[in-house]
Amino acid sequence: MVTEFTPFASFVGGVLIGLGAVILMALNGRIAGMTAMLGGVLEPQSPDSPWRLAFLAGAIAAPLIATLIGAEFAFAAPTTGVLLAIGGVIVGVGVTYGSGCTSGHGVCGLARLSPRSLVATLTFMATTFLTVTLMRHVFGD
Questions:
Q1: Which pLDDT score, from 0 to 100, does residue 1 have?
Q2: Per-residue pLDDT, 118
Q3: Residue 2: inside a domain
Q4: What is the pLDDT of residues 48-59, one digit of tens each?
Q5: Mapping DSSP to helix (H, G, I), strand (E, B) and coil, where does residue 5 land?
Q6: Would residue 114 count as lying in a domain?
Q7: Which of 37, 91, 104, 126 could form a disulfide with 100 if both were Cys (CB 3.0 to 4.6 A apart)?
Q8: Domain count within the chain
C-alpha cells in the first residue's frame, strides 16, 4: 500500500489540533484528550457533558464541512471491517490501561512536559513502528 507525502496538509492539521488544545486549556482548563472527552459524554449526569459533546461534535463535523466545500480525503483500509473493529477494541483497552490516548498524552501531555506522557507517547510510537514494519514487510505483499 502506497501512502502519500502531504507535508502542508499535515502541518495545517497539526497546527489546528494544537490550537484547539490550547484554546480548550485556556478557556476551560481541560486537556483535549479524545478518550476522556468521549468518556465524559457517556457518564450519566456529568456536568461537563455539554462542552465535551460540543468538542466531539466539532471533531466529527469539521471533516464533513470540509468535504462539502471541496476538500478531498482519501482513506483506504487494507483489511476487513471485523479486523478494524478488533483493532478498535484493542485500542480502547490500551487507552484505558494507559490512562489516555495519543491526543491526551501526545499533544497535551508532552506540551506540559509530563514524564508519564513521554513514556506513553514513546510506547504508542514504538508499537506503531513495529506494527507497520510487520504488516508491510513481514506479512504484507
A1: 58
A2: 94
A3: no
A4: 778 888 888 988
A5: coil
A6: yes
A7: 104
A8: 1
